[in-house]
From TrEMBL:
Belongs to the recoverin family. Keywords: Calcium, Lipoprotein, Metal-binding, Myristate, Repeat. InterPro entries: EF-hand-dom_pair, EF_Hand_1_Ca_BS, EF_hand_dom, Recoverin. Pfam families: EF-hand_7, EF-hand_8. May be involved in the calcium-dependent regulation of rhodopsin phosphorylation. Binds three calcium ions. This is EF-hand domain-containing protein. GO terms for biological process: cone photoresponse recovery.
Length: 192
């Protein structure tokens, strides 16, 4: 894929994105224009990404979570998000089907990208999600979900695994699909 510096989205990327998402050419071109406006270099750094995230969570600490999300979006591991990574991320997290979202969630939890989730990875991500919850909302959480450790424990239990076992992608998606209670543990939506 060429390193085109021109203003328009390259034909290769356009074709690729039309195939891998359900977005139309018009939508992709429109987003590309916005992306270029907000990000003239054509790449979002981890710091920029964290700044964007922290604006959505003014009352809590979104830094760790944002780092994990960034890692899951940066599929080619080069430390920046390009337009294609950005659009695919947008597709998976906002307009995708639940299965798609869960596949993305899997990559979020698979911290070392080895294709499996361990209990320590579940703990790590649960801790970063927990930091998104403002203090006053933590008080209202159910007793068995009001610390990062308890949430990790509860989530891990839904997979019926031993402490040293690991979870493959299919098991992860299957275990969470239509499981509202477990799903609520892997996300936090600000109330306002
Ligand atoms: Ca990248
Ligand atoms: Ca892993």
């Amino acid at each position: 894929m060429g390193n085109s510096k021109s203003g328009a989205v390259s034909k290769e990327i356009l074709e690729d994105l039309k195939l891998s998402t359900k977005f139309s050419e018009t939508e992709i071109v429109h987003w590309y224009e916005n992306f270029k406006k907000q990000c003239p270099s054509g790449r979002i750094t981890k710091e920029e990404f964290q700044n964007i995230y922290s604006k959505f969570f003014p009352e809590s600490d979104a830094n760790t979570y944002a780092q994990h999300v960034f890692r899951s979006f940066d599929t080619n591991d080069d430390g920046t998000l390009d337009f294609k990574e950005y659009i695919i991320a947008l597709h998976m997290t906002s307009t995708g089907k639940t299965t798609r979202k869960l596949e993305w969630a899997f990559s979020l939890f698979d911290v070392d990208k080895n294709g499996y989730i361990t209990k320590s990875e579940v703990k790590e991500i649960c801790a970063s999600i927990f930091k998104l919850i403002p203090k006053d909302e933590v008080d209202d959480l159910p007793e068995d979900e009001n610390t990062p450790e308890k949430r990790a424990e509860k989530l891990w239990k839904t997979f019926n695994k031993g402490d040293n076992d690991r979870i493959a992608e299919g098991e992860f998606v299957h275990g969470l699909l239509n499981n509202e209670e477990a799903l609520s543990l892997i996300q936090y939506e600000p109330m306002k």
